[in-house]
Amino acid sequence: MVFHYPPEASSSGVLRTLKYSRYLQDYGWRVTVLTPESDAFEIVDPALEAQIPASVRVIRTRFLNTKRHLAWRGVYPSLLALPDRWIGWLPWAVAAGKRLIETDPVDLIYSTSPHATAHLIAMRLAKFSGKPWVADFRDPWFEEVPEPGDSSGPLFHRLNRWLEARAVARSTQVVASTTHLRDLMRTRYPQHADKIGAILNGYDEADFAALPVGSAADRAGHERGLAWPLSEGGAFLVAAATPGVALGFRVDWEQEGGERRRTIHAARPL
Questions:
Q1: 178: pLDDT confidence band, cut at 50, 70 and 90?
Q2: Confidence check: pLDDT of 9 > 80
Q3: Judgement on whether residues 101 and 171 belong to the same structural domain of the protein
């Protein structure tokens, strides 16, 4: 159960799931992805869609977007967007998932959020099938304390807290995309801490194989000062806005005393 999957291109979460579906087959898994129809996505990239392996079965279903389909002059009750405005995807996704399970039984159910609706779909299908369920969290389901200006109100917040707790309790395994989020969830749910782990985001070397290494452009990048530790996140945005510098980059690891540093390098000019 995945919302962010190609051709959707508005979130880096697309790459996390795309690469799962690409490399799980190397470990003997046959992957089926359940996701909304492509017109659900506001930003698309056909090049990403072209990276979906031919062996991956993609089932696209109908959906309702609360903001797009149920709003009156741009306004809708927040409870119609609980846990998010994609809750209208749930009935079609659950129906399609049940048909899949009945005709082509699965061994494991995986869901990832945002959007949290994917976890509610997976929860129902895990109960229906009796199969293990892995719930992947790329961001917190809710913020504690609620973010300033949150218009959904305290009831909405309490209901989301209850839904997250229910998902964590019913899942077989919980995976977070960062150690910080893993530790946050272990603190929230100490009774389930032993099943909450982390799989960190990385990069696929194959995506950078064609970039030149050690080229004149690379050296010019160093001369212009376009190399920074990744912890200085804003620096990469400066590189992106620098005339003549593309968004291709190479990451080098360097040992400085007892600390290992990652450095980002501009790879080539536009």
A1: very high
A2: yes
A3: yes
Residue 3 lies in a domain: no
Residue 140, both tokens: 């917190």
Whether a cis peptide bond, with omega within 30° of 0, leads into 7 is: yes
| Domain shared by 39 and 70, yes or no | yes
DSSP string for residues in 97-123: HHHHHHHS--S-EEEEESSTHHHHHHH
Give the bridge partners for 249, in sequence order: 266
Identify whether residues 218 and 142 lie together within a single domain: no
Among the ranges given (4-13, 124-133, 172-181, 212-221), the one the predictor scored with the smallest mean pLDDT: 212-221
Which of residues 145, 176, 198 is at a domain's end? 198
Q: Kindly state whether residue 8 falls inside one of the protein's structural domains.
A: no
Residue 2 resides in a domain: no
Task: For residue 99, give every residue at least 6 positions away whose Cβ sits within 8 Å of its Cβ, in sequence order, or none.
Answer: none
Mean pLDDT for 20-43 is 91
86 shares its domain with 130: yes
How many CA atoms, within 13 angstroms, populate the side-chain half-sphere of residue 74? 0
- Separation between Cα atoms, residue 138 and residue 155, nearest integer Å: 24
Residue range(s) defining the domain that contains residue 232:
205-266
Distance in angstroms (rounded) separating the CA atoms of residues 98 and 115: 20
Res. 38: pLDDT tops 70: yes
What is the reported pTM? 0.76
* CA–CA gap between residue 83 and residue 116 (Å, rounded): 6
Tokens of 202: 């990385």
Number of structural domains in the chain: 2
CB 186 within 8 A of CB 193: yes
Q: Which pLDDT score, from 0 to 100, does residue 221 have? A: 39
